[in-house]
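seq:
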Amino acid sequence: MEAGLLQRPHRPTALAAATLSSSTGAAGNGVPLPPSLPPPPRRVPAAAAPAAAAAPPSASKTTASATAPLSTPHIPGGERGPQLLSLDPYLAPESHPWFRRIDVKEDRLVHRRYMAMYDRSVQFTSTTGQSHTVQYDVVGNPHLDFRFSVAFPFHPATATSPAQVTLVREYAQGPNALMFTLPCGGFDPRRHTSLRHCAIAEMREEAMLVGGEVVDLLPEDHPGQSELKWSRNKFKPFLFINPRFDPSGCASRDEEELTIEVVRVTIPELYGIILGGQMMLPSVFATFLALEALKARKLLAC
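struct:
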């Protein structure tokens, strides 16, 4: 580890949510983590899903992409590539009673700066042919083709140190807090040739790391994981095994990225950060896939 560049954070048990003061002057000197988390709910077998309703006579060309058949879910695999799992019938999109009965009628741009907001009109048609329309606020980044990449930089265990992951901690304007994330950034068609290329560039710019084996954590034909329910943005995560420090010794960052702190954490510390609610959701998703891939490669204990 290069001295002075990668700093280890406190143990997860001592970490606190670094909530900052709001613009209204409310106090924000740090909110302690909850003392414990509730146990996960027990899984109850789902009842048989209703049979798929027949589609309307003519399907609109603007049918919402969320209603399109999804790719078969997969678990990132080892040397033989992804392992595919079959969907149970009640999990398939076609089993939903509103499948192919949701049409996007209009996306009207109402605000655009770094992000854009759209007033989306969506028509829902019942099995009896009756329809109603609902207005939604939808956000996304058209400058970056509504796509971004997430990099998971993994440093295997050595004789003197446990396995570690490089994270960045930076200011998150939504929660107005200092949050942990993996290196990530938007796809710029002027700079990047692919989402993989984007992930390589962002890992260098944000975490000052280059090289290593690159593993796609979603199938090549996967459209990308949705960022949020109300976002048009999608992302793809990539695992980087054993990247090395950037010999140039500096990172190229935008003005809003000046708060970035680069840290290296162990796997137990990584779990502690996630369980403490201090990591942004795209990074949590990427972490889950990366850890499964590392276990499949026997680089981590199951």
